[in-house]
Write a structure and sequence with these properties.
about 400 residues; alpha/beta; 18 helices; 13 strands; about 15% strand
């Protein structure tokens, strides 16, 4: 399937997570993504986390629908390859530290002079300006600086992190939004532009009322475990066999249905608990009532009762649960591909789901440099040129 971005060429520079995730998302919806990798070693993600046949299993997700071209950006001949590719590109994505492109003669002034309609997405730890611009920044640091880490975990323990690079993914999606906004502007006659995405700002954009609560009332939100202070009830509750169930009955009508389901009509009919602000002031009382009910029932019994009462509830899934879940399957969220190593592999499906022009996994993640020759021929390099570049280890 061609996808809604068919005909859009994306040039991906950088490595690991944020920039490549941004490009992957565009590629899922039909953009032609040309991924530039260092000769000999490739993107560091090729060797991250768990491996199969010498390649990261993560690689097969992050780099689907891409073409791999090897190119040494630190050498003039490699920089010329990128400039030629940029002339025919609609979007270029990079996630180096600010100033790296400029040192390689690939800054915005040079690129936009060659292609006035080019959109340059720049993802970095702290952005392209400001006193912290030159600091190295990974997702872990961005999550801390944006305030996310301070509110994650239990109050009697140090802050914790989710077991993934959440800040990178959030920043990548902001990069996608920026690229599509700029692409719309270009298609309406505007010139290209720079999309400046800072990891910490992307995470900060998701921090809800953290700042106005402090500004207006001096309140500093902190860790609260599995509860959600100020929104009640919404928590993790123990079941009879030692498992847990998440229950979110925080809307007024949901609360009434939840209290009816657990036989606590006294709480349901208490005027002080009719609205969220009243319930937030008595969270402990409400949580104790729900937990007393769940402890005497199995997880399956609790979930069945919540479903019957139309109250949002769920158990905590592992990867095994996800792989076996019929709803994931029905929604196309688990796709079975043949990876470049020739073996089958389950990978996450594509979102968002477009009814008329959906995304698709058209090609598996490439081998290192798999498309170098074809892409270079397409921008005017002869076979002799390519052979010379290979001999010099430029590609």
């Amino acid at each position: 399937m061609a996808g809604p971005l068919a005909g859009i060429r994306v040039l991906e520079l950088g490595s690991l997570i944020a920039g490549p995730f941004c490009a992957k998302t565009l590629g899922d919806f039909g953009a032609e993504v040309i991924k530039i990798e260092p000769p000999g070693e490739g993107d560091a993600l090729r060797s991250w986390r768990r491996m199969r046949h010498g390649t990261s299993l993560w690689w097969h997700v992050q780099s689907r629908n891409k073409k791999s071209v090897t190119c040494d950006l630190r050498r003039p001949e490699g920089q010329e390859i990128v400039r030629r590719l940029a002339r025919g590109a609609h979007i270029m994505i990079e996630n180096f530290r600010p100033g790296a492109l400029e040192r390689w003669n690939l800054g915005w002034d040079a690129l936009s002079a060659a292609n006035a309609r080019l959109i340059l997405v720049r993802i970095s730890g702290y952005g392209q300006s400001g006193p912290y611009r030159e600091r190295p920044g990974f997702a872990a640091i961005a999550e801390a600086v944006a305030g996310l880490r301070h509110i994650t975990g239990f109050p009697d323990r140090p802050p914790v992190r989710p077991n993934l690079s959440l800040g990178d993914t959030i920043a990548a999606l902001h990069g996608v939004i920026g690229a599509l906004l700029a692409l719309h502007a270009v298609q309406n006659g505007a010139a290209g532009q720079v999309i400046d995405v800072a990891l910490y700002e992307a995470v900060f954009n998701c921090m809800e009322s953290l700042l106005p609560e402090y500004d207006a009332q001096g309140y500093i939100r902190s860790r609260s475990g599995s509860a959600l202070p100020g929104i009640a009830p919404s928590n993790l509750y123990p079941c009879r066999e030692g498992s847990y169930v998440l229950i979110a009955g925080n809307a007024d009508s949901l609360f009434r249905r939840l209290m009816s389901a657990i036989g606590r009509e006294d709480l349901r009919d208490d005027p002080a608990l009719a609205r969220n602000d009243g319930r937030a002031a008595q969270m402990e009382r409400i949580d104790e009532a729900i937990a007393a009910w769940t402890r005497s029932r199995t997880q399956a019994e609790v979930l069945a009762a919540m479903e019957a009462a139309e109250v949002p509830a769920g158990r905590i899934y592992t990867a095994s649960d996800i792989a076996a879940d019929p709803h994931y399957q029905a929604r196309g969220m688990i796709e079975r591909i043949i990876a470049v190593d020739g073996e089958p592999l389950s990978v996450p499906g594509i979102i968002p789901k477009l009814s008329a022009t959906p995304g698709a996994i058209r090609t598996p993640a490439p081998k290192l440099g798999e498309h170098t020759d074809d892409v270079l021929r397409g921008i005017g390099y002869s076979d002799a040129d390519i052979a010379r570049l290979r001999a010099a280890k430029i590609v």
